Structure formats: C-alpha cells, structure tokens
Amino acid sequence: MGILIKGGVYLEQGHRMRWLALDKTGTITQGQPVQTGLIPLGQERSVEQLQRIAVSLAARSDHPVSRAIAQAPEAAAMLAMTVADFVAVAGRGVQGVIDDERWYLGSAVWAQELGLMTAAVRDSVTAAQTSGQSVVLLMNTGAACMLFTAADKIKDSSIKAIEQLHQLGVKTVMLSGDHQSVVDAIAKTSGVTQAHAQLLPQEKQQVVQKLQQDDRTVVGMVGDGMNDAPALAQANIGFAMGAMGSDTAIETADVALMDDNLLKIPAFLKLSRTTRRVLVQNISLALGIKAVFLVLVLLGMGSMWLAVFADVGASLLVVANGLRLLRAGPKLQETNEAV
C-alpha cells in the first residue's frame, strides 16, 4: 500500500478520525510551483542584478516557491553570489548578507513587519494575489526591490482524496502560510471544508489544538515541510508525505506515505475501520465460544474435547479471521486506483 505506520495505536485510532488538516503546498498542490513573472519595484539596480541576488538566496532555501525562483529558465545562466549569515525564518522567508548588504527574500507579511510595505508595493502584491498567484518579495533594509510571482497546480489525486474523506465522514481544513486570496482559490477547487491562510507554524499547531477541544475527536494532520512539524506533533495522527517531505516532517509524523498520493489517507482510514471490525469480531467470537462452553459444563454436557475446542479451537478461529486483513490492503489500493 505504500503506507508506513509507526505504531499499532495509530491504526487503532484511525477509525475515530473526524478532522483532517492539510498543508497546501506540496500536499494538496503538486509542490512544484513555476515562476510566472517578476516585477522591479523602482530600484536603481538592474533587473538582472536583483534577480541574481534573489536566485542566490533562493538556491539555499528548501521552500517550493523559493525553488521556483532558483530554477527559473533565466536563472540557470546566472552565477550565484556568495551569501553570508544565511538564516531561514520559519513562515516568513530567508535572509543573508551579499556584498556587505543584508537582503531578504520572503512573504508580503514579512515586508509589512519590516516596515517596507509601501502603497505602491501593496498594490502590486494585491494584484498578483487576486489572480491566485503566490508572491515573494526581494527586499533590502531600505525598500522592497522586486516582486516574484509563482503558481502551483492542484493534484488530481488531492481532489479525489478530499471527496472520499468527506464520504467517510471526515471534515477537512487547509492550513497555509500563503495569502487568503490564493488559499481561497485552492480551497474552492479542492473542495475542503475550511481554509485558513497566512499562518505561522505555531498558528497551524493552534488550529489543530482547537479542533482537539473535544477529547473524543481524533484529528489528523498532513504535511511535508519543516513548517508543518509543530502541527504534525500536535495532531493525534500525523501524516508525512514521504516522497517530497522534509526529514523533520517524516521524523515527527506517525504515519509516512511513501509517495505524494493523498488517496492513501482514505485507504488508511478504511484499513483502520476494517481492522477494528475484525478485532470486535474476534473478541466476540472468543467470548461467545467460552460462554457456550461454560453453559454446557453447567448442564453437565462438557467434555475434554469441548474444552480443547473452546481453547485451541477458538484461538485458531480468531487467527484465521485476522488473516483476512492480509487481503484488505491490496483490495483498498485497487479500489482507490480505480476511482
């Protein structure tokens, strides 16, 4: 099935899951944004020089949108500049010193916090975000110098998986650090129940914690990046996207999906429910046989062979019934692939 479950307790809890939180980039979307444009914001430096600075910072980042900037066609011919004092700021972007000047490459929220969000910059950011594109700003200590736009596509499997989750009675909530307009566009297409935008890693964790207010509610979280680690740890069951997930996310999660197909989560839930059903059957079968034997003994109809059957025979029946689970995985996988 391509699902690595790190403990039986998570398989047991799966049948009680009522909420599933999902990261956007790399989980619902393909996680391979493509740079769609760049806009100089009135600086004296040339476009090529600014782009070279941005590419030098982006090449050191593991965020998908930064990788889109570093892997843009025109970036291939650019010689990376030396970056000193490089720092990745969770939920905001990256910064470093290039030619004795500090540069920032990150979100519009970070620009606002740095006091660099002028009216002209805000208008350019709003226009890009309204069209459903992600925005990254290149800034120095004095001004925002260049705006980059990138777009990502939703995986077909994500839409099918979310539909199946709803059919199984599981509500979905999307958690993203991106702008609200971008998140709303993805949420509408994917069909998630709720969507939250412009979240820091700690705020994602707080949303999951809020969903857990009812102690009987099991909440799952799916993510693939370092920013998802706090929410993955907070969730009752954390799912990491194995193929594209960061080492931190995979280490923190309770269940690792060995590829980036979200359809494995409905398969996991179905397997969990089938497992519980077999467990209930086995317990009922074992207790039922013991009860019948007890009644027969009280009626004076017991024998050694009946005792052997009540003990060893019941164990063999329970094991035989449990072996049916070996066929459950392949069947669930075939069902999901056929959908």
From TrEMBL:
It is an enzyme of class 7 (translocase). GO terms for molecular function: ATP binding; ATP hydrolysis activity; cadmium ion transmembrane transporter activity; P-type zinc transporter activity. This is P-type Zn(2+) transporter. Pfam families: Hydrolase (PF00702). Keywords: Membrane, Translocase, Transmembrane, Transmembrane helix. One of its GO terms (cellular component) is membrane. It comes from the Bacteria. Its EC number is 7.2.2.12. It comes from Advenella kashmirensis (strain DSM 17095 / LMG 22695 / WT001). Gene3D superfamilies: Calcium-transporting ATPase, cytoplasmic domain N, HAD superfamily/HAD-like. It catalyses: Zn(2+)(in) + ATP + H2O = Zn(2+)(out) + ADP + phosphate + H(+). InterPro entries: ATPase_P-typ_cyto_dom_N, ATPase_P-typ_P_site, Cation_Transport_ATPase_IB, HAD-like_sf, HAD_sf, P_typ_ATPase, P_typ_ATPase_HD_dom. The chain crosses the membrane at residues 278-299, 305-326. It is found in: Membrane. Belongs to the cation transport ATPase (P-type) (TC 3.A.3) family. Type IB subfamily.
